[in-house]
Amino acid sequence: MAAMALASLFLVGCAGSARVHNEPQDRVVGSWRLSTYEDRPDEGPSVFPFGRNPKGLLIYSPTGQMSIRIVKQPHPGVASGDEDNVAPPEKQALFDSYMAYFGTYSVEPARSVIVHHVEGDLWSVFDGKDEERPFELTGDQLILRPRWSSAGRQWLGIRTFERIKARDNGA
Questions:
Q1: DSSP state of 164
Q2: Whole domain around residue 57: which residue ranges?
């Protein structure tokens, strides 16, 4: 009888655990490889500030931390090959070709929004801000769709990520 009760508790625990892992806030946890980064204005053609095939990594930890890094492709190099000998125009090109910030995150499933609570930002644009990222999560694909206004224009960002699975080296 005791074994049956323990088995029932185990099955209830497993069912509850499976249900919890189907919640959006749990399904976003993991590492995500960037596949597209597109900015669509309200009028006119799309812009690809990091190139048409950017590289990037987005991480949502199970403990609530997040981090994102995006690199333009093709990535500008340093002519000297020496990190201590970078010309000012090269520094500008390198700065313009990389974006990164980190902090914590929360998920608002009812609104399909992930909020990035930014603690540190390479460009100091998002420092201390809560950045809302409307999202779609389908299988192993996560799409973030931020919206913003700049110079009187409305913009929609399309950031598509693919889940990185164990032993996936990106090859």
A1: P
A2: 26-163
| 91 φ/ψ angles, rounded to the nearest 5 degrees | -60, -45
For residue 76, being part of any structural domain is answered with yes
Asked if residue 115 belongs to a domain, the reply is yes
Domain tally, the chain: 1
CATH number at residue 61: 2.40.128.280
Q: What is the pTM of this model?
A: 0.82
Q: Residue 149: CB partners within 8 Å, gap ≥ 6?
A: 155
Query: What is the distance between the alpha carbons of residues 2 and 133, in angstroms, rounded to a whole number?
Result: 49
Give all strands (DSSP E) within the chain, no chain letters. Answer: 30-41, 55-60, 65-71, 98-108, 113-121, 130-138, 141-144, 147-150, 153-163
Q: Does 56 map to a domain?
A: yes
For residue range 137-170, list pLDDT tens digits in order.
999 999 999 999 998 999 999 999 999 998 766 5
**Helices and strands per DSSP (H, E), number in the chain:** 3, 9
Domain assignment of residue 2, yes or no = no
Q: Supply angle C-alpha 119, 93, 133, rounded to 5.
A: 35
Residue 43, phi then psi, degrees to nearest 5 = -140, 140
Q: Tell me how far apart the alpha carbons of residues 75 and 38 are, in angstroms, rounded to a whole number.
A: 17
